[in-house]
Amino acid sequence: MVARLLKRTPSAMLPDWDLRDGELDGVDVATPIASHPVNELLWNSAEIYPDRVCVDFLGKTHSYRAMANLADHIAFALQERGLQKGDRVGIMLPNCHYFVAFYYGILKAGGVVVNFNPLQSERDVLAQAGDADCFAMVTLDLVATLPKALACLRAEHTQKLIICSMTEGLDFAKRLLFPMLKGKELADIPSDKGVVLFRELITSQNKPKPVDINPEEDLAVLQYTGGTTGQPKGAMLTHANLSANTDQLTRWYPAWKPGGEVMLGVLPLFHVFAMTVVMNGAVAKGASMVLLPKFDPKMVFASLKRTKPTLFPGVPALFQSLAKSPKAPLLQSVNLCISGGAALPLAVKQEFEKVSGAILIEGYGLTEASPVTHCNPVMADGRTGTIGRPLPGTQFCLRDKDDPSNLVPPGAAGELCIKGPQVMKGYWKRPDDTKASFVDGWLRTGDVAMVDEDGYASIIDRIKDLIIVSGFNVYPRMVEDAIQAFDEVEAVSVIGVPDQARGEVPKAFIKLRDDVTGDFEAIKSSMLERLRAELEPHQMPRSLEFRDELPRTMVGKLSKKELRAES
């Protein structure tokens, strides 16, 4: 049966939307959403697909059976060293098999995973570890990570520091070559009390003690927000939140072949998008994960040639970069790509789909929703420029950004608010922030959106990015879309800068395509002339500034924080 997009009228007599009753393009939206301990995903797949490759890390493979056994050893070792249910364990690792094993091992032991960005500054790592009060921290013996993790141990923000060997995680050939070629990247092992080497951690073959997990109440992950708009906060994601979002996502692609897909994992697993979509999604369906420690086009194409992945989550900048490469035909093994983290420009979607033959769809989410709430349909035509429809079991509404107790009239823009089983429990040790993030039980996203009559939502901008020019609201996204449409432009970021007469005005920072040459001042003048024909006077940028690169987050999302700091 074809699903209905219901329009219901709450007390405010204005609509919210969700998908119910039957199927949408093959998507099961009627069966209750899953709710179970997240760690069960690994052991269920190990039972069904024991010999299937679970992780391929730079050519070294680990079967589902081997990965489940390793996670068991980790769980037992943590319990043996004193970990109690609810204790937090930090993971400061790049993409590698250690990450997967520790993630599921910590959860099976009853612990809570705290993801750390290995590229964070020592100051930020210390602040996060202190806030989370970690029982243990896991990292690699690399100069880039070990000193920061050690600082947490010495500051007593963690009781134990578990150090994994980079070389021991590689295949035989790379294990021999790494010390010779990359020896300067290896750190000396400290002798501090509390330091435990991974090889010493897993000497026992005993099974961990069973832990009674209440999926609805017990935390699985403390996922700290990126901090691009303020002080980072730990979103409390329960086992139910993460198992639900995994179920919602895997349903969205009815053509998914259990035990038959290969997932290319370029996005960092410590980021909530990759944690859920790449890792939990792959493990739930017995897919093989091809993990790369970072985005490097040469490394990506080598993996494409060797492993022939079929699924490839990413961000717009990543897809744009790969589509321009002469090696782009190697992408033709891929069937589905999901883009998140930022708006997907139409030109990028069209170019990537042309060279790869894959379906590239745009979705939407946020840390506080585990993260995905919306996605364009996979098995039918979506609507370019929108974030698609809500996932099964997800509701959304639009509320007045100045008074969120009120819904907005039909056809008007408003703050996107979410309800669903993937929505967080709240912020760790921040009751006031938790209260402020919800209105009438709905999660406030901070994003301004519009929705069409069929329930396809379009993000206009971040509320905090709003620019007020002489009393007029200017959404940077609208200005960015106008500039992004120019053939010369690869990326653009618009912020508000102070203006004595009008309060503030837009300023655009632009990265031109690499093949653009000539008189850049003339190009700038031409752009401004074209913009005057497309934008209202209050929307016009005061200036255009060309940059060789624009600041981005770890996952490739354009970041305005650095640009604001300069202004």
The name of the CATH topology of the largest domain is Rossmann fold
| Top CATH class of the largest domain | Alpha Beta
Q: How much helix, percentage-wise, in residues?
A: 25-40%
SSE class: alpha/beta
Gyration radius (Cα, Å) is 24 Å
How would you sum up the global shape? globular
Largest sheet: 8 strands, mixed
Instruction: Specify the CATH homologous superfamily of the largest domain.
Output: ANL, N-terminal domain
Question: Which band does the percent of strand residues land in?
Answer: 25-35%
Chain oligomer state: single chain
Low-confidence stretches: 1-15
Using DSSP, what is the number of strands? 30
In short:
By secondary structure, the protein is α/β, with parallel strands linked by helices.
Descriptive overview:
The protein has 567 residues and is an alpha/beta fold. It folds into 3 domains: 4-31 and 359-462, Roll (Luciferase, domain 3), CATH 2.30.38.10; 40-305, 3-Layer(aba) Sandwich (Rossmann fold); 466-566, 2-Layer Sandwich (GMP Synthetase, Chain A, domain 3). It starts with a strand and ends with a helix. The model is unreliable at 1-15 (pLDDT under 50).
Structural topology:
Elements: E1 4-8, E2 16-20, E3 23-24, E4 27-28, H1 40-48, E5 53-57, E6 60-63, H2 64-80, E7 88-92, H3 97-108, E8 112-115, H4 122-132, E9 134-140, H5 146-154, E10 158-164, H6 172-182, E11 195-197, H7 198-201, E12 219-224, E13 234-238, H8 239-252, E14 262-265, H9 272-284, E15 288-291, H10 297-307, H11 316-323, E16 336-339, H12 346-356, E17 359-365, E18 372-375, E19 389-390, E20 395-399, E21 414-419, E22 426-427, H13 431-436, E23 438-439, E24 442-451, E25 457-462, E26 467-469, E27 472-474, H14 476-484, E28 489-499, E29 503-512, H15 520-534, E30 543-546, H16 561-566
Parallel strand pairs: 5-15, 7-8, 7-9, 8-12, 9-10, 10-11, 14-15, 16-17, 29-30
Antiparallel strand pairs: 1-2, 2-20, 3-4, 5-6, 12-13, 13-22, 17-18, 18-19, 20-21, 21-24, 23-24, 24-25, 26-27, 28-29
